[in-house]
Amino acid sequence: MRRRATAGILVLWLVSGLLAGCRPAGPTVWLKVFQDKLERADGLRATIIITEPAGLVWEHRLYWRRDGAYRIEVVQPKGLAGQYTVSDGRQLWWVSQRGTVFGPTPVAAGLSGTERVLGLLAASDLYRAGLKYTRAGDRYLARLDDGQLTVEFRGGQPVAWERRRANDELVVAAELREIVFGPLLGDVSFTPPSPGTAPLPGPWETLTPGQAQAHLGGLSLPAGLAGRAELQGIRVGQGEPFWLAALYAGQAGQVTLTVSRSLDWPPFAGMATRERSGRAFLTLSAGNLRIVAWQEMGYQLVLLGNLGLEEMMTLALIR
Hints:
Elements lengths: L1 H20 L5 H14 L2 E9 L5 E9 L4 E7 L7 E4 L3 E5 L5 E6 L6 H8 L12 E4 L2 E6 L2 E8 L2 E9 L4 E12 L27 H8 L7 E2 L3 E8 L6 E8 L2 E8 L11 E5 L2 E8 L2 E8 L2 E7 L3 H9 L2
Antiparallel strand pairs: 1-2, 1-11, 2-3, 3-4, 4-5, 5-6, 7-8, 8-9, 9-10, 10-11, 12-13, 13-14, 14-15, 15-19, 16-17, 17-18, 18-19
């Protein structure tokens, strides 16, 4: 009798173990499967809809290659369509609708290929450590230290997510309309158009602010933001039209300043006018990139980087 009881307990234990191993998949499992796909993929193409806090809605077409090269084309809003960001995995350029090339700006180091593509998909928040999801209708919620993350899945794949602060203010919302894994087919370029037209190709050449000043006359370059975006190097293009570029970098990110006398104005469609300390700036947010442009002493100056707009306008004013 004791043997039968022992055998029964063993059977129950084995069955309960099997049932525990067959729990229905949920957000943690689905996100791990999605991450594994990214890690194995030779490349991908995707269409992403991103809504920013101010209500501006972007439609981007992303092309990404395993070696880190990527291209993000603007599809919507219509007034900005045709602009794109392109990177060879080491440097990044921004190309306006008119084909004017800004950059290069070095790509931030220290990220794996998967971490970088998650950032390009605006999906990094989904992989914060320690997230616990609860179901709410057809979506899943996860509490954050500074707010809440909401994720929708379809067929075991994340298709929409949004992050809000504790006061319900939107940080970012994203919708993954399409994603196709595999080698990129067709003619997808990961370099600026006609590389020779990029204003300052090649590695950064170090010039002192004093040496650069000889090219600029009375125009002074921004001095930099201590600990945030400090001046790293200056290059001057050869011949005409005149170009000068300065790189600022720090813990907060990287910013490239382009100075020219021959830019079309405004340099990008859809730029908004903002005033700061009595000076008018043109600004544009495009995903995680920020652009601040202004005119001074006959020059056109364009800051391109990943700092906030307020910080970039502060950088423009510090001399």
